[in-house]
Amino acid sequence: MADKVLMKGNEAIAEAAIKAGCMHYFGYPITPQTEIAAYMAKRMPKIGGVFLQAESEIAAINMVYGVASTGHRVMTSSSSPGVSLKSEGLSYLAGADLPSLIVNVQRGGPGLGGIQPSQSDYYQATKGGGHGDFHMIVLAPASVQEMADLTVKGFELADKYRMTSMILADGTMGQMMEPVSLDYDIAPAPEKPWATTGTKMEREHNIVNSLFLSPEKLEQINFERFEKYKAIEENEAMYEEYMMEDAEICVCAFGIAARVAKNAINEARKQGIKVGLIRPITLWPFPSAPFKKAAAQVKEIISVELSMGQMIDDIKLASECKVPVTLCNRVGGMIPSPEQVLEAIVKANNGGAL
To answer: Whole-angstrom Cα distance, residue 255 to residue 176?
Structure first.
């Protein structure tokens, strides 16, 4: 068994990125993800990598664009308002089909909001992240181990599909400490014949660009890109099911909300209520298949969120609105308690009555 070390979620992301071959980090401090930048500031110089605290979030994401164009693995991290500032660069990365990893350790909003955990950037992450027609692969960890594992997975998927992967964590996941194994068998990064590495006069110049003045050409590229997205939806959706075999009620949650929901489900089972959990691990592509299956089995789906209800829309689409989908939530940096989730489960079990 691999040795485990006690680490914060933010630190686990940083070390896993290094294990995955990331030698370039550009960022800007903002709570609750600053430990990622602090960790990289200490580690990168020792391994011959590059750490640079940019003058702004906008500068950081454009530095990511520059390194990504050379084919090297590169990342940045921020928290909610900082990611908004990076959104133009995220769109440029998508427009140039460049692989990279961005981490969003979410805090409450809108605006500067607060520094406590939130999941209210779900729309921003899963519906694009910037202007234009594009997607990012969005990975939602629910443990410190997954903070590390999904960082490695994020780099691999980014290279495989030439696009941005995002780790969408909440502030609790970034700050909590758990034992984590960082013993990875990392496959070498794939060849990148499109990268701007210098021609040595042996090939045509590669051009990295997101500007296409011909509308016919831009339309063609967008259609081709969405064919790639279709393949990702078919092949890369990830989720966990918990006690769904005989469930009559389904709870859906990700991140810290999923951990709270499991406690509530365990208590409800003790009370004889048949309830289970579907935890999306990829928020895009959203794992529609288990919800379509659940809709033929359960009488209600409860979405547990640290937002005013954003994932609930994807649940309704995935379940084709065949069963009621209700919301159990806290916002502003508050986290639903197991008792609150249990109350929602009891209410669903009783047909809406407590």
So the answer is: 12
